[in-house]
Design goal:
The complex is a heterodimer.
Chain A lengths: L9 H22 L3 H21 L3 H25 L13 H18 L11 H17 L5 H9 L1 H22 L19 H24 L7 H19 L1 H7 L2 H24 L13 H6 L2 H4 L7 H32 L2 H8 L2
Chain B lengths: L1 H5 L1 H19 L3 H23 L15 H8 L3 H7 L9 H32 L4 H13 L6
The chains are: A mainly alpha, B mainly alpha.
Protein backbone atom coordinates (compact mmCIF):
# COMPACT_ATOMS: atom_id res chain seq x y z
CA UNK A 1 0.00 0.00 0.00
CA UNK A 2 1.37 3.36 -0.94
CA UNK A 3 0.23 6.14 1.35
CA UNK A 4 1.19 9.30 -0.47
CA UNK A 5 2.44 11.69 2.21
CA UNK A 6 0.53 14.95 2.31
CA UNK A 7 3.04 17.09 0.51
CA UNK A 8 2.43 20.80 0.69
CA UNK A 9 1.76 21.58 -2.96
CA UNK A 10 -0.08 24.45 -4.64
CA UNK A 11 -3.40 22.58 -4.58
CA UNK A 12 -3.28 22.13 -0.83
CA UNK A 13 -2.27 25.77 -0.33
CA UNK A 14 -5.28 26.97 -2.38
CA UNK A 15 -7.49 24.46 -0.57
CA UNK A 16 -6.50 25.79 2.84
CA UNK A 17 -6.71 29.44 1.76
CA UNK A 18 -10.25 28.98 0.41
CA UNK A 19 -11.40 27.06 3.49
CA UNK A 20 -10.04 29.81 5.74
CA UNK A 21 -12.02 32.34 3.68
CA UNK A 22 -15.15 30.22 4.11
CA UNK A 23 -14.65 30.07 7.87
CA UNK A 24 -14.14 33.85 8.04
CA UNK A 25 -17.28 34.44 5.97
CA UNK A 26 -19.30 32.06 8.14
CA UNK A 27 -18.07 33.96 11.20
CA UNK A 28 -19.15 37.24 9.61
CA UNK A 29 -22.59 35.80 8.86
CA UNK A 30 -22.91 34.73 12.51
CA UNK A 31 -22.02 38.22 13.71
CA UNK A 32 -23.96 40.46 11.35
CA UNK A 33 -27.41 41.69 12.34
CA UNK A 34 -28.34 43.00 8.92
CA UNK A 35 -30.06 40.29 6.91
CA UNK A 36 -29.07 41.94 3.63
CA UNK A 37 -25.41 41.73 4.64
CA UNK A 38 -25.88 38.10 5.68
CA UNK A 39 -27.40 37.25 2.29
CA UNK A 40 -24.64 38.95 0.32
CA UNK A 41 -21.99 37.26 2.49
CA UNK A 42 -23.71 33.92 1.92
CA UNK A 43 -23.64 34.57 -1.83
CA UNK A 44 -19.88 35.17 -1.65
CA UNK A 45 -19.55 32.08 0.54
CA UNK A 46 -21.25 30.01 -2.17
CA UNK A 47 -19.06 31.43 -4.90
CA UNK A 48 -15.87 30.66 -2.96
CA UNK A 49 -17.06 27.14 -2.21
CA UNK A 50 -17.69 26.74 -5.97
CA UNK A 51 -14.02 27.63 -6.61
CA UNK A 52 -13.05 25.17 -3.88
CA UNK A 53 -15.06 22.41 -5.61
CA UNK A 54 -12.98 22.96 -8.76
CA UNK A 55 -9.77 22.47 -6.74
CA UNK A 56 -11.27 19.24 -5.37
CA UNK A 57 -11.82 17.82 -8.90
CA UNK A 58 -15.58 18.28 -8.79
CA UNK A 59 -16.39 20.60 -11.72
CA UNK A 60 -20.00 19.39 -11.93
CA UNK A 61 -20.60 20.31 -8.30
CA UNK A 62 -18.78 23.62 -8.75
CA UNK A 63 -21.05 24.45 -11.65
CA UNK A 64 -24.15 23.69 -9.62
CA UNK A 65 -22.97 25.58 -6.54
CA UNK A 66 -22.05 28.66 -8.58
CA UNK A 67 -25.45 28.86 -10.27
CA UNK A 68 -27.60 27.76 -7.35
CA UNK A 69 -25.76 29.15 -4.34
CA UNK A 70 -24.60 32.44 -5.74
CA UNK A 71 -27.54 32.91 -8.12
CA UNK A 72 -30.92 31.45 -7.29
CA UNK A 73 -30.69 31.16 -3.50
CA UNK A 74 -29.54 34.79 -3.25
CA UNK A 75 -32.56 35.91 -5.25
CA UNK A 76 -34.95 33.77 -3.21
CA UNK A 77 -33.48 35.08 0.05
CA UNK A 78 -33.69 38.68 -1.16
CA UNK A 79 -37.30 38.08 -2.17
CA UNK A 80 -37.99 36.76 1.32
CA UNK A 81 -36.48 39.73 3.20
CA UNK A 82 -38.39 42.08 0.91
CA UNK A 83 -41.57 40.47 2.22
CA UNK A 84 -40.45 40.38 5.84
CA UNK A 85 -37.89 42.58 7.56
CA UNK A 86 -34.23 43.38 6.99
CA UNK A 87 -32.87 43.40 10.54
CA UNK A 88 -32.62 40.79 13.23
CA UNK A 89 -33.23 41.49 16.89
CA UNK A 90 -30.15 41.98 19.05
CA UNK A 91 -29.92 38.74 20.99
CA UNK A 92 -29.48 38.75 24.74
CA UNK A 93 -25.92 37.49 25.37
CA UNK A 94 -27.09 35.23 28.19
CA UNK A 95 -29.19 33.31 25.73
CA UNK A 96 -26.16 32.63 23.55
CA UNK A 97 -24.23 30.68 26.20
CA UNK A 98 -26.11 27.40 25.87
CA UNK A 99 -26.00 27.25 22.02
CA UNK A 100 -22.31 28.22 22.09
CA UNK A 101 -21.51 25.47 24.58
CA UNK A 102 -23.41 22.88 22.54
CA UNK A 103 -21.68 23.95 19.30
CA UNK A 104 -18.20 23.98 20.85
CA UNK A 105 -18.76 20.53 22.35
CA UNK A 106 -20.17 19.00 19.17
CA UNK A 107 -17.46 20.69 17.09
CA UNK A 108 -14.80 19.27 19.42
CA UNK A 109 -16.29 15.79 19.04
CA UNK A 110 -16.37 16.16 15.25
CA UNK A 111 -12.72 17.26 15.12
CA UNK A 112 -11.79 14.36 17.41
CA UNK A 113 -13.68 12.02 15.06
CA UNK A 114 -11.77 13.50 12.11
CA UNK A 115 -8.58 11.89 13.46
CA UNK A 116 -10.04 8.54 12.42
CA UNK A 117 -10.78 9.66 8.87
CA UNK A 118 -8.44 8.99 5.93
CA UNK A 119 -6.06 11.83 5.05
CA UNK A 120 -7.13 14.21 2.30
CA UNK A 121 -6.51 12.61 -1.10
CA UNK A 122 -5.95 9.09 0.23
CA UNK A 123 -6.37 6.88 -2.83
CA UNK A 124 -6.57 3.68 -0.76
CA UNK A 125 -9.39 4.84 1.53
CA UNK A 126 -12.42 2.50 1.35
CA UNK A 127 -14.57 5.07 -0.46
CA UNK A 128 -11.99 5.77 -3.16
CA UNK A 129 -10.42 2.34 -3.60
CA UNK A 130 -13.61 0.31 -4.09
CA UNK A 131 -16.87 1.90 -5.13
CA UNK A 132 -15.44 5.03 -6.74
CA UNK A 133 -12.96 3.00 -8.74
CA UNK A 134 -15.59 0.41 -9.66
CA UNK A 135 -17.77 3.11 -11.22
CA UNK A 136 -14.80 4.55 -13.13
CA UNK A 137 -13.89 1.14 -14.53
CA UNK A 138 -17.41 0.03 -15.38
CA UNK A 139 -18.99 3.22 -16.71
CA UNK A 140 -17.15 3.46 -20.06
CA UNK A 141 -18.07 -0.16 -20.85
CA UNK A 142 -21.65 -0.11 -19.51
CA UNK A 143 -22.74 3.36 -20.52
CA UNK A 144 -20.16 4.65 -22.98
CA UNK A 145 -20.08 8.21 -21.63
CA UNK A 146 -16.85 10.01 -20.74
CA UNK A 147 -18.41 11.95 -17.85
CA UNK A 148 -18.67 9.34 -15.10
CA UNK A 149 -20.61 11.76 -12.93
CA UNK A 150 -23.41 11.94 -15.51
CA UNK A 151 -23.29 8.17 -16.01
CA UNK A 152 -23.70 7.49 -12.29
CA UNK A 153 -26.26 10.26 -11.84
CA UNK A 154 -28.50 9.37 -14.73
CA UNK A 155 -28.04 5.64 -15.17
CA UNK A 156 -26.61 3.74 -12.18
CA UNK A 157 -28.38 5.95 -9.67
CA UNK A 158 -31.20 6.98 -12.00
CA UNK A 159 -33.89 6.05 -9.50
CA UNK A 160 -32.28 8.21 -6.82
CA UNK A 161 -32.12 11.13 -9.24
CA UNK A 162 -35.78 10.53 -10.11
CA UNK A 163 -36.61 10.91 -6.43
CA UNK A 164 -34.60 14.13 -6.25
CA UNK A 165 -36.37 15.55 -9.29
CA UNK A 166 -39.68 14.72 -7.64
CA UNK A 167 -38.56 16.46 -4.43
CA UNK A 168 -37.71 19.61 -6.40
CA UNK A 169 -41.12 19.46 -8.08
CA UNK A 170 -42.81 19.00 -4.70
CA UNK A 171 -40.92 22.00 -3.29
CA UNK A 172 -42.12 24.09 -6.24
CA UNK A 173 -45.70 23.00 -5.58
CA UNK A 174 -45.25 23.81 -1.89
CA UNK A 175 -44.04 27.35 -2.58
CA UNK A 176 -46.80 27.90 -5.14
CA UNK A 177 -49.45 26.78 -2.66
CA UNK A 178 -48.09 28.96 0.14
CA UNK A 179 -47.29 32.13 -1.78
CA UNK A 180 -49.96 32.02 -4.47
CA UNK A 181 -49.88 30.76 -7.99
CA UNK A 182 -48.35 33.81 -9.57
CA UNK A 183 -48.15 37.56 -9.66
CA UNK A 184 -51.18 39.49 -8.52
CA UNK A 185 -50.90 43.05 -7.25
CA UNK A 186 -47.65 43.64 -9.09
CA UNK A 187 -49.50 42.98 -12.34
CA UNK A 188 -51.15 46.37 -12.01
CA UNK A 189 -49.89 48.75 -14.69
CA UNK A 190 -46.51 50.14 -13.65
CA UNK A 191 -46.28 53.83 -12.83
CA UNK A 192 -45.42 55.97 -15.83
CA UNK A 193 -41.67 56.49 -15.81
CA UNK A 194 -40.25 59.57 -17.41
CA UNK A 195 -36.62 59.26 -18.37
CA UNK A 196 -35.30 55.69 -18.46
CA UNK A 197 -32.42 55.31 -16.02
CA UNK A 198 -31.79 51.68 -16.84
CA UNK A 199 -31.08 51.88 -20.54
CA UNK A 200 -27.61 50.31 -20.24
CA UNK A 201 -29.02 47.54 -18.09
CA UNK A 202 -31.81 46.89 -20.58
CA UNK A 203 -29.54 46.75 -23.59
CA UNK A 204 -27.03 44.52 -21.82
CA UNK A 205 -29.79 42.21 -20.58
CA UNK A 206 -31.33 42.00 -24.05
CA UNK A 207 -27.96 40.83 -25.39
CA UNK A 208 -27.24 38.50 -22.49
CA UNK A 209 -30.54 36.66 -22.07
CA UNK A 210 -30.43 34.74 -25.38
CA UNK A 211 -26.76 33.90 -24.77
CA UNK A 212 -27.54 32.61 -21.27
CA UNK A 213 -30.35 30.45 -22.69
CA UNK A 214 -28.01 29.15 -25.39
CA UNK A 215 -25.37 28.41 -22.78
CA UNK A 216 -27.96 26.46 -20.78
CA UNK A 217 -28.63 24.27 -23.82
CA UNK A 218 -24.88 23.76 -24.31
CA UNK A 219 -24.51 22.71 -20.66
CA UNK A 220 -27.49 20.41 -21.10
CA UNK A 221 -26.22 18.55 -24.15
CA UNK A 222 -22.54 18.69 -23.30
CA UNK A 223 -23.26 17.16 -19.89
CA UNK A 224 -22.61 13.66 -21.28
CA UNK A 225 -19.09 14.59 -22.33
CA UNK A 226 -17.93 17.18 -19.82
CA UNK A 227 -19.12 18.98 -16.73
CA UNK A 228 -22.80 19.83 -16.94
CA UNK A 229 -26.21 18.23 -17.14
CA UNK A 230 -29.89 18.77 -16.54
CA UNK A 231 -29.63 20.21 -13.04
CA UNK A 232 -27.11 22.89 -13.95
CA UNK A 233 -28.76 23.68 -17.28
CA UNK A 234 -32.18 23.95 -15.64
CA UNK A 235 -30.95 26.49 -13.13
CA UNK A 236 -29.12 28.49 -15.83
CA UNK A 237 -32.28 28.54 -17.96
CA UNK A 238 -34.26 29.76 -14.96
CA UNK A 239 -31.59 32.42 -14.36
CA UNK A 240 -32.16 33.76 -17.89
CA UNK A 241 -35.90 34.10 -17.22
CA UNK A 242 -35.33 35.62 -13.77
CA UNK A 243 -32.85 38.15 -15.22
CA UNK A 244 -35.54 39.15 -17.70
CA UNK A 245 -37.99 39.70 -14.84
CA UNK A 246 -35.47 41.72 -12.81
CA UNK A 247 -34.64 44.08 -15.67
CA UNK A 248 -37.90 44.34 -17.62
CA UNK A 249 -40.36 43.84 -14.78
CA UNK A 250 -42.47 40.88 -13.76
CA UNK A 251 -45.36 41.98 -16.00
CA UNK A 252 -43.34 41.49 -19.15
CA UNK A 253 -41.93 38.14 -18.07
CA UNK A 254 -45.31 36.78 -17.07
CA UNK A 255 -46.67 37.55 -20.52
CA UNK A 256 -43.72 35.63 -22.04
CA UNK A 257 -43.67 32.72 -19.58
CA UNK A 258 -47.07 32.55 -17.84
CA UNK A 259 -47.06 30.92 -14.37
CA UNK A 260 -49.50 28.33 -15.69
CA UNK A 261 -46.97 27.27 -18.34
CA UNK A 262 -44.15 27.11 -15.76
CA UNK A 263 -46.22 24.84 -13.54
CA UNK A 264 -47.23 22.57 -16.43
CA UNK A 265 -43.62 22.27 -17.64
CA UNK A 266 -42.47 21.38 -14.12
CA UNK A 267 -44.88 18.45 -14.02
CA UNK A 268 -44.08 17.54 -17.64
CA UNK A 269 -40.41 17.07 -16.68
CA UNK A 270 -41.22 14.54 -13.95
CA UNK A 271 -43.58 12.84 -16.40
CA UNK A 272 -40.85 12.56 -19.07
CA UNK A 273 -38.49 11.05 -16.50
CA UNK A 274 -41.06 8.54 -15.26
CA UNK A 275 -42.16 7.84 -18.84
CA UNK A 276 -38.64 6.74 -19.81
CA UNK A 277 -38.63 4.40 -16.83
CA UNK A 278 -41.98 2.91 -17.74
CA UNK A 279 -40.95 2.51 -21.39
CA UNK A 280 -38.00 0.40 -20.22
CA UNK A 281 -40.39 -1.73 -18.18
CA UNK A 282 -42.71 -2.25 -21.14
CA UNK A 283 -39.79 -3.53 -23.18
CA UNK A 284 -38.93 -6.13 -20.57
CA UNK A 285 -36.33 -4.36 -18.42
CA UNK A 286 -36.42 -2.89 -14.94
CA UNK A 287 -37.60 0.67 -14.20
CA UNK A 288 -35.05 3.06 -15.79
CA UNK A 289 -32.92 0.24 -17.25
CA UNK A 290 -32.10 2.06 -20.46
CA UNK A 291 -30.64 -1.04 -22.10
CA UNK A 292 -34.27 -1.98 -22.71
CA UNK A 293 -35.35 1.47 -23.87
CA UNK A 294 -35.61 0.26 -27.47
CA UNK A 295 -37.14 -3.11 -28.31
CA UNK A 296 -34.43 -5.47 -29.73
CA UNK A 297 -35.89 -5.35 -33.25
CA UNK A 298 -35.62 -1.55 -33.29
CA UNK A 299 -32.10 -1.64 -31.87
CA UNK A 300 -30.95 -3.95 -34.67
CA UNK A 301 -32.09 -1.39 -37.24
CA UNK A 302 -29.84 1.33 -35.84
CA UNK A 303 -26.77 1.58 -38.07
CA UNK A 304 -23.49 1.24 -36.23
CA UNK A 305 -22.01 4.39 -37.76
CA UNK A 306 -24.59 6.54 -35.98
CA UNK A 307 -22.86 5.73 -32.73
CA UNK A 308 -19.40 5.24 -34.19
CA UNK A 309 -19.21 2.09 -32.10
CA UNK A 310 -21.00 -0.88 -33.67
CA UNK A 311 -19.86 -3.47 -31.13
CA UNK A 312 -21.60 -1.69 -28.27
CA UNK A 313 -25.01 -1.26 -29.82
CA UNK A 314 -26.64 -1.34 -26.39
CA UNK A 315 -25.00 2.03 -25.64
CA UNK A 316 -27.61 3.50 -27.94
CA UNK A 317 -30.35 2.88 -25.38
CA UNK A 318 -28.17 4.30 -22.61
CA UNK A 319 -27.37 7.42 -24.64
CA UNK A 320 -31.00 8.07 -25.49
CA UNK A 321 -32.25 7.23 -22.02
CA UNK A 322 -29.79 9.58 -20.35
CA UNK A 323 -30.56 12.33 -22.86
CA UNK A 324 -34.30 12.01 -22.22
CA UNK A 325 -34.15 11.90 -18.45
CA UNK A 326 -31.72 14.85 -18.44
CA UNK A 327 -34.32 16.67 -20.51
CA UNK A 328 -36.90 15.82 -17.87
CA UNK A 329 -34.58 17.15 -15.17
CA UNK A 330 -33.97 20.35 -17.17
CA UNK A 331 -37.71 21.00 -17.58
CA UNK A 332 -38.55 20.32 -13.95
CA UNK A 333 -35.64 22.26 -12.45
CA UNK A 334 -36.02 25.30 -14.72
CA UNK A 335 -39.80 25.50 -14.36
CA UNK A 336 -39.70 24.91 -10.60
CA UNK A 337 -37.11 27.66 -10.08
CA UNK A 338 -39.23 30.05 -12.16
CA UNK A 339 -42.36 29.05 -10.20
CA UNK A 340 -40.54 29.68 -6.91
CA UNK A 341 -39.35 33.07 -8.19
CA UNK A 342 -42.89 33.99 -9.29
CA UNK A 343 -44.13 32.98 -5.85
CA UNK A 344 -41.77 35.37 -4.06
CA UNK A 345 -41.68 38.16 -6.63
CA UNK A 346 -45.40 38.10 -7.35
CA UNK A 347 -46.42 38.57 -3.76
CA UNK A 348 -46.42 42.01 -2.27
CA UNK A 349 -47.18 43.30 1.19
CA UNK A 350 -50.47 44.59 -0.29
CA UNK A 351 -51.53 41.06 -1.20
CA UNK A 352 -50.88 39.95 2.32
CA UNK A 353 -52.89 42.84 3.78
CA UNK A 354 -55.79 42.17 1.42
CA UNK A 355 -55.81 38.49 2.35
CA UNK A 356 -55.65 39.31 6.04
CA UNK A 357 -58.87 41.37 5.87
CA UNK A 358 -61.88 39.40 7.06
CA UNK B 1 1.56 19.58 11.82
CA UNK B 2 1.33 16.86 9.23
CA UNK B 3 -2.00 15.81 10.77
CA UNK B 4 -3.36 19.35 10.58
CA UNK B 5 -2.35 19.64 6.92
CA UNK B 6 -3.79 16.29 5.89
CA UNK B 7 -6.99 16.72 7.92
CA UNK B 8 -7.44 20.48 7.54
CA UNK B 9 -10.57 20.00 5.43
CA UNK B 10 -12.36 18.01 8.12
CA UNK B 11 -11.49 20.59 10.79
CA UNK B 12 -12.78 23.41 8.57
CA UNK B 13 -15.95 21.40 7.85
CA UNK B 14 -16.54 20.89 11.59
CA UNK B 15 -16.10 24.64 12.23
CA UNK B 16 -18.44 25.61 9.36
CA UNK B 17 -21.06 23.08 10.46
CA UNK B 18 -20.99 24.44 13.98
CA UNK B 19 -21.22 28.02 12.68
CA UNK B 20 -24.39 27.01 10.81
CA UNK B 21 -25.77 25.14 13.82
CA UNK B 22 -25.00 28.11 16.09
CA UNK B 23 -27.00 30.43 13.81
CA UNK B 24 -29.94 28.01 13.85
CA UNK B 25 -29.83 27.75 17.66
CA UNK B 26 -29.08 31.33 18.61
CA UNK B 27 -30.91 33.47 16.08
CA UNK B 28 -34.57 34.10 16.67
CA UNK B 29 -35.02 35.39 13.14
CA UNK B 30 -36.54 32.73 10.88
CA UNK B 31 -34.71 33.92 7.74
CA UNK B 32 -31.34 34.02 9.50
CA UNK B 33 -32.05 30.48 10.66
CA UNK B 34 -32.58 29.37 7.08
CA UNK B 35 -29.19 30.89 6.16
CA UNK B 36 -27.65 28.93 9.04
CA UNK B 37 -29.24 25.76 7.76
CA UNK B 38 -27.89 26.47 4.28
CA UNK B 39 -24.35 26.90 5.69
CA UNK B 40 -24.71 23.62 7.57
CA UNK B 41 -25.76 21.95 4.34
CA UNK B 42 -22.84 23.37 2.35
CA UNK B 43 -20.49 22.04 5.03
CA UNK B 44 -21.91 18.56 4.46
CA UNK B 45 -21.15 18.98 0.77
CA UNK B 46 -17.58 20.06 1.52
CA UNK B 47 -17.15 16.97 3.70
CA UNK B 48 -18.32 14.53 1.02
CA UNK B 49 -16.20 16.12 -1.68
CA UNK B 50 -13.15 16.11 0.63
CA UNK B 51 -13.56 12.36 1.12
CA UNK B 52 -13.75 11.79 -2.64
CA UNK B 53 -10.56 13.66 -3.53
CA UNK B 54 -7.67 11.47 -4.70
CA UNK B 55 -4.13 12.92 -4.67
CA UNK B 56 -2.81 13.43 -8.15
CA UNK B 57 -6.28 12.75 -9.51
CA UNK B 58 -8.22 14.61 -12.13
CA UNK B 59 -11.95 15.28 -12.49
CA UNK B 60 -13.89 12.03 -13.08
CA UNK B 61 -14.38 12.69 -16.77
CA UNK B 62 -12.77 9.76 -18.54
CA UNK B 63 -9.84 10.66 -20.80
CA UNK B 64 -9.31 8.58 -23.95
CA UNK B 65 -6.64 5.95 -23.04
CA UNK B 66 -3.20 6.63 -24.57
CA UNK B 67 -4.27 10.03 -25.87
CA UNK B 68 -1.83 12.95 -25.46
CA UNK B 69 -3.95 14.23 -22.54
CA UNK B 70 -3.79 10.87 -20.78
CA UNK B 71 0.00 10.67 -21.26
CA UNK B 72 0.41 14.22 -19.99
CA UNK B 73 -1.63 13.47 -16.86
CA UNK B 74 0.29 10.23 -16.31
CA UNK B 75 3.69 11.91 -16.67
CA UNK B 76 3.03 13.99 -13.54
CA UNK B 77 2.67 10.93 -11.30
CA UNK B 78 4.89 8.28 -9.79
CA UNK B 79 4.57 5.12 -12.00
CA UNK B 80 4.04 2.79 -9.03
CA UNK B 81 1.26 5.02 -7.65
CA UNK B 82 -0.28 5.26 -11.10
CA UNK B 83 -0.20 1.48 -11.59
CA UNK B 84 -1.96 0.90 -8.29
CA UNK B 85 -4.63 3.58 -8.38
CA UNK B 86 -5.00 4.48 -12.02
CA UNK B 87 -7.83 3.40 -14.33
CA UNK B 88 -6.46 2.93 -17.86
CA UNK B 89 -3.35 4.92 -16.98
CA UNK B 90 -5.06 7.95 -15.40
CA UNK B 91 -5.87 8.62 -11.72
CA UNK B 92 -9.36 10.05 -11.20
CA UNK B 93 -11.09 11.45 -8.15
CA UNK B 94 -14.14 9.63 -6.86
CA UNK B 95 -17.27 10.41 -8.94
CA UNK B 96 -19.81 9.21 -6.38
CA UNK B 97 -19.62 12.15 -3.89
CA UNK B 98 -19.93 14.54 -6.83
CA UNK B 99 -23.19 12.90 -7.89
CA UNK B 100 -24.63 12.95 -4.38
CA UNK B 101 -23.72 16.57 -3.64
CA UNK B 102 -24.67 17.92 -7.08
CA UNK B 103 -28.28 16.84 -6.63
CA UNK B 104 -28.25 17.74 -2.92
CA UNK B 105 -27.38 21.37 -3.77
CA UNK B 106 -30.36 21.75 -6.11
CA UNK B 107 -32.69 19.99 -3.68
CA UNK B 108 -31.23 22.28 -0.98
CA UNK B 109 -32.26 25.48 -2.76
CA UNK B 110 -35.75 24.07 -3.35
CA UNK B 111 -36.19 23.25 0.33
CA UNK B 112 -34.68 26.64 1.28
CA UNK B 113 -37.40 28.24 -0.83
CA UNK B 114 -40.09 26.24 1.00
CA UNK B 115 -38.67 27.33 4.36
CA UNK B 116 -38.60 30.97 3.28
CA UNK B 117 -42.14 30.72 1.96
CA UNK B 118 -43.23 29.51 5.39
CA UNK B 119 -41.35 32.45 6.95
CA UNK B 120 -43.18 34.87 4.62
CA UNK B 121 -46.55 33.41 5.61
CA UNK B 122 -45.60 33.58 9.28
CA UNK B 123 -44.75 37.27 8.81
CA UNK B 124 -48.12 37.86 7.18
CA UNK B 125 -49.99 36.09 9.96
CA UNK B 126 -48.09 37.55 12.94
CA UNK B 127 -46.34 40.63 11.54
CA UNK B 128 -42.93 39.30 12.61
CA UNK B 129 -40.32 36.69 11.76
CA UNK B 130 -38.73 36.76 15.23
CA UNK B 131 -39.45 33.53 17.08
CA UNK B 132 -39.88 35.27 20.46
CA UNK B 133 -42.38 37.83 19.19
CA UNK B 134 -44.32 35.12 17.37
CA UNK B 135 -44.55 33.14 20.60
CA UNK B 136 -45.93 36.16 22.49
CA UNK B 137 -48.36 37.02 19.69
CA UNK B 138 -49.64 33.47 19.35
CA UNK B 139 -50.26 33.36 23.10
CA UNK B 140 -52.25 36.60 22.88
CA UNK B 141 -54.17 35.27 19.89
CA UNK B 142 -55.15 32.09 21.67
CA UNK B 143 -56.78 34.02 24.56
CA UNK B 144 -58.70 36.54 22.45
CA UNK B 145 -59.97 36.43 18.86
CA UNK B 146 -57.27 37.85 16.60
CA UNK B 147 -57.75 39.59 13.28
CA UNK B 148 -57.61 36.32 11.35
CA UNK B 149 -59.80 34.30 13.70
Amino acid sequence: MIALPPTFDANLAIDIALLVMLVVLAGAIVRTRSLLAAIILFSIYSLISAVWFVIMDAPDVAFTEAVVGAGISTIVLLGAILLTRGETERPDWRRLIAPALVCITVGGILIYAATGLPALGDASSPANAYIGRAYLEAAPKDIGLPNTVTAVLASYRGFDTFGETAVIFAAGVGVALMLGFGPRASLAPPPVVTGDHHVVLRVAAKLLIPLIALFALYVQFHGDLGAGGGFQAGVIMAAAIILHALVFGLRETVSAVPPRVARSVASLGVLVYAGVGVACMINGGAFLDYDYLFPPEVEKQIPGWLLGDSEHAHHWGQHFGIMLIELGVLLTVAATMVTIFYGFAGRTIDDARREAKP
Amino acid sequence: MSFILSHFNYIAVAVLMMAGLFIVFSSGNLIKRMIGLAIFQTATGLFYISLGKVSGGTAPIVVEPNSPEARELASRLDPAYLAQHGVDGVVYSNPLPNVLILTAIVVGVATLAVGLAIAVRVREAFGSVEADEIEVLSRVESTQPGPRA
